[in-house]
Amino acid sequence: MLQSADPKAGYVAHAKEIRDTIDRVLASGFYILGPEVEAFENDYALYQGGGYTIGMANGTEALEIALRGLGIKAGDRVATVANTVTATVSAIEQAGARPVFVDIDPGTMTMSPEALAEALSRDTGIKAVVPVHLYGQPADMAAINTHAAKAGAWVIEDCAQAHGASLQGVKVGNFGDAAAFSFYPTKNLGALGDGGAVYTRSPGLASNLRQYRQYGWRERYVAESPGRNSRLDEIQAAILRVKLKHLDNENKRRSELAACYLSRLAGTALRLPVLVEGARHVFHQFVIRTENRDGLRRALLDQGISCGVL
Ligand SMILES: *Cc1c(COP(=O)(O)O)cnc(C)c1O
Fold first, then answer.
1. pLDDT recorded at residue 3
2. Which of 206, 215, 219, 236 would give a disulfide with 52, using CB separation of 3.0 to 4.6 Å?
3. What's the count of helices (H) and strands (E) in the chain, helices before strands?
4. pLDDT score at 120
5. What is the pairing mode between strands 170-171 and 52-56?
6. Which atom of ligand 1 has the smallest separation from the CA of 60?
7. CA 115 to CA 102: how far, in whole Å?
8. At 295, phi and psi to the nearest 5?
9. What distance in Å separates the CA atoms of residue 51 and residue 43, rounded to the nearest whole number?
10. Rounded to whole angstroms, how far apart are CA atoms 10 and 244?
11. Would you say the CB of residue 182 lies under 6 angstroms from ligand 1?
């Protein structure tokens, strides 16, 4: 069967390292929130540029918990883009809020700052904005932050498809009040099971979320605030530490392949991804637009070239 993603390839490429790592965790006796999770959180925070990483069960919960941590509650409205994956909307709804869909910039396919400004002026109940760095393309964070700040709305970046993407050399996830990452197996940084994380530069928010993800415990058995279970496990964290070492190289390879597609497809009737000055796109997906979607899809599949409809 043709697939548009091949998570097994990421395992096979580093199989020995990953299997050794899993053996080490199995022998350690720690399986949930232990030394591997802590080490991965530190590694990822360093990779991001110095904030705090809090491992979670998956990306959807990371986004939901970030929203809750910033005080989003039932009845609040949260602006996001209409073309995002279902998970972004599930997270907003699970936090008790209602999504407000904002249009995108037709070139980058990320949130249009002008459309956001209009939504914020129309609806003063919007308490948070969730731009999505969709397909690996960074959204225009400077303009989005300006509009959100004017309206007093929090900004939570959905970075689930954009590990390693950056603006002016600063990694996405550093522009908002918090950011959510997913480590679903097909993502640019993928585990071999579910995983996610919140990244934030706020030490206060980080420590609240650390409590919240485990029953509200300040320390073992001492619950100080409401909470639940959204933990990352040791095996996944250990695998992620291995794969993080290869992320930059793999993103570089994605960019090389994208550059090849971009040059060979230039001049065709296809609408291609755009590269923005100062922005690093990490090509989680190479998404093209065409008038004849189903015809093109059939022709590609007939030739054994996998593709999907988004
Ligand atoms: C994958 C994804 C999520 C959700 O992550 P899970 O780990 O599958 O829960 C959220 N937002 C975007 C943009 C995604 O691509």
1. 74
2. 206
3. 10, 12
4. 98
5. unpaired
6. 9
7. 6
8. -65, -45
9. 11
10. 11
11. yes
User: Ligand 1 test: best mutation among 56, 64, 85, 287, most atoms within 8 Å of CB?
Assistant: 85
At 310 the pLDDT is 85
Residue nearest to ligand 1 atom 12, measured at CA = 160
The answer to whether 244 touches 96, Cβ cutoff 8 Å, is: no
- pTM for this one? 0.97
What does the CA dihedral 31, 34, 40, 45 come to, rounded to 10 degrees?
A: 140
Q: Are 282 and 165 in contact (CB under 8 A)?
A: yes
Rounded Cα distance between 73 and 226, Å, is: 14
Mean pLDDT of 166-170: 98
185 lines ligand 1 (CB under 6 A): no
- pLDDT tens per residue across span 56-95: 999 999 999 999 999 999 999 999 999 999 999 999 999 9
Position 151 scores a pLDDT of 98
Q: Summarize pLDDT for 126-166 with one digit per residue, the tens.
A: 999 999 999 999 999 999 999 999 999 999 999 999 999 99
Q: What is the distance between the alpha carbons of residues 90 and 99, in angstroms, rounded to a whole number?
A: 9
Selection from 4, 7, 5, 3 nearest residue 239 by Cα: 7
Q: Which residues on neighbouring strands pair with residue 157, listed in sequence order?
A: 179
196 CB near ligand 1 (under 6 Å): yes
Output the CA 159–ligand 1 centroid distance in Å: 8
Q: Give the residue whose CA is nearest to atom 7 of ligand 1.
A: 59
For residue 161, the ligand 1 atom closest to its alpha carbon is 15
Task: Calculate the alpha carbon distances from 132 to 117, 139, 254 in Å.
Answer: 16, 7, 19
Q: Distance between CA 167 and CA 26 in Å, rounded?
A: 39
pLDDT at position 156: 98
Q: Name the strand (E) or helix (H) holding 94.
A: helix 86-94
58: Cβ below 6 Å to ligand 1? yes
